[in-house]
Amino acid sequence: MHIKKYGPEFTRRKFMESLTKGAGTAGVLTSLWPLIGHSADDISKAYPDELLSIEMYTKGKVKPGDVITADNVEHVKDLLTPIAYEQVKSMGRRITIVESTKDVTNLYPYEYLDATLRNQGKAVLDKEGNVRTKDGRPWIGGNPFPQPKNGIEAMYNLTLSWGRHNYSQYAIRDWDLDPDGGLSYVYDFAWAELNANARSDDKTWKGKDDILRYQSVWFTSPSDASGTSFLSIWHYDQNKFPDLYGYIPAFRRVRQYPTNQRFEPLVPGVTFFLSDAWSSGDPLLTWGNYKIVDRKPMLGAVSPKNFNGGYHDNYEKPAHGGPQGQTFYDTYMELVPECLVIDAEPTGYPRAPVGKKRVWVDARNQHFIGYMTFDRRGEMWKSFEPAFAQYKNDKLTVMDGNHPLWSWVHVMSHDIQSNRMSRFVQVKEIAGGYKSIYDPGDVDVYNKFLTVQAMQRLGG
Q1: pTM metric for this prediction
Q2: Which fold has domain 154-459?
């Protein structure tokens, strides 16, 4: 018989104490980040067994290998976002439970974790509220605040480097479903991110101290959307709105878009906005009233089992549930021992349709595992649920340089008010021959994909 040394009341009390004193240090039995910093990849010493074992947490009601359905979802209701709970309870979604990840190197790109360890303690907020090094430079790489003391610090860990690679180019296939579960659109598009600062190599790209990132998206299929492209240039100052440009083939010209169009779909049928990207799709200081409202365990899709490469040639994923059996991706979730729950409001957008967003952040790597928006009335509106993984399984390991690739695998963006779903997956290749790329080598990705001229060329 296993005798519990620490029970649920001990854990809840420790989380409440941390909220009362300020978020500060992650971990329950000992501080998590110094444990990681001393090359202890196994985080078991930081948490009681009940936070690393779904079977112990649920008192034997749920164990790894079980599938969460409407019949047993009540056992894990407190571990799911409200919309994920409704999806399982009422819409036929299923979630497979796996063991919790204890080796944190499975939760980061290698270079990003190395930069976080190397640069810990060097980040400060300047008088404008931006992250700087102590000698006044733009942030140099990794999580600036591996032990965030408040919501702003936690959200900076998300905002400064979305994909946690210096350059990311995602080949994406998207399926958009109507309220009746029928397929209305299928899009192929590429999404590129080039960080000028907050890079894992501690450098500023081409001396661009005033730029955080260049980000573009271009559609390659179907034919009526092919050539549609957008470019967003993020200033390093998080008080400034990005410069947003778009190319629409029907008009054969590039136009600059107003800021408030960050809350509109880029193409017909999709449910997600630029604002939703990575749960931090707008400059951090154009939102406000950040607050850590809870600290708790959650279920999160961060297991390598979410990577389906090697089983489907193009890394596509099976779906299930909903009115026609194709609404939700098959997903593997684990018990995440500690999450920060952060609320924020769009203070810089007086006409924003969003009243509030809520973000669930995994304390082990400071990345989001859940995100929801609420409308102006305070009603639940949309969820943007990601799955992350190291890209490896029993048949294949995808390398990023000398290390296994870590990235997002799929996203489900569910507008629960209209019951419209957009679900998209990172694939090997999309129409037009564009592939997912993380190490561009000598390729001039900036001039190829991240300028106004590139938008015109991609649209032509």
Answers
A1: 0.95
A2: outer membrane lipoprotein receptor (LolB), chain A (2.50.20)
